[in-house]
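Quarterly update from the structural biology core.
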Amino acid sequence: MSVNDWFAASYAEAKGKFLDAAKGAGAELTSHPHPLKGPAGEDLALDVARLGPADAGRVLVTSSATHGIEGFCGSGCQVGFLESGLHRELPAGTALLHVHAHNPHGFAHQRRVTEDNVDLNRNFIDFSAPPPANPDYDEVHPWLVPASWEGPDRQAADAAILGYIEERGLFAFQAAVSGGQWGHPDGLFFGGQAPTWSRRTIEATAGAKLAGTGHVALIDFHTGLGPRGHGELIAVGAPGSAEHKRTLEWYGDAVKSPEAGDSVSAVVKGTIEEGYGGILTDTEATTIAIEYGTLPAEQVLQALRADNWLHLHGQVDSALGREIKTEIRAAFYGEDKTWCEDVWEQANALARQALRGLAES
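Predicted structure, tokenized:
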């Protein structure tokens, strides 16, 4: 089976490959069915495969599809780990936990968000307190969500965005849009107003599967930012924190930090890594995201705007709808043989670095 064969063309195919590979590796499988269906009526689920001793004090967790459509990448790497025998290289007292499709609805429908238009990677905040403010997003929101995708409304919105970028820079616009917002349910990067199905399921799963673990290392797979095929390692702990120092020790100087200003990612709140950290309060955690580039940032943001408009106002089964779906797929899935091989090579090395780090912790 070649590297390319580990990657899939649809959620259903990705799920099938993951389950087959997990069974072939002898993994303990747990499935959490989603209440909704995929676009062809297929069943959706968050699936978990565990390998290694039941009493392991250290666990490497890999997770895919936090941002649904980005699951093509993470799922392919998880199948690769299972097919290539990563579980046969586990240090003593160490286990593997592959969490497949944090956001299965978004994965199946080729959307970055959940069924309720929530960015899961902004959903892990304390909803009993006032949500974080993002006045910069409030300013640009009307331009991101025009009433029409073609014609004067779109032209005026694009002109306003261009003016903002010319005045403040592309990264400032990216930060305003992608930092997360909790006040516009019809907007982009919406963090929600309550925990989503995915968040609740992740919290229950992590709580059950990782309780009593001494040290957890998490690798969360993402796509859509940076040079094509390059995986940027993004630290989660604040610079200077024990977790950040440990991340640098494990993975080296290639690690970047949004808080330090050297990452392709803006500073965001309510991330999946914060979610796992909040669940594992008595566990040492070393978490990292790997962000693989696909297309230039302007094209990725444009694809997100288009997909958001499509599901608010358009028809997916139309010529324009199919065009938009092609664009957003390309924005988050490189898909060609070279891209898949580059992604896998970096993921394979990263997982082994994580296991070495756990063994020495």
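The chain has two domains: 3-126+191-294+336-360, 135-178+299-327.
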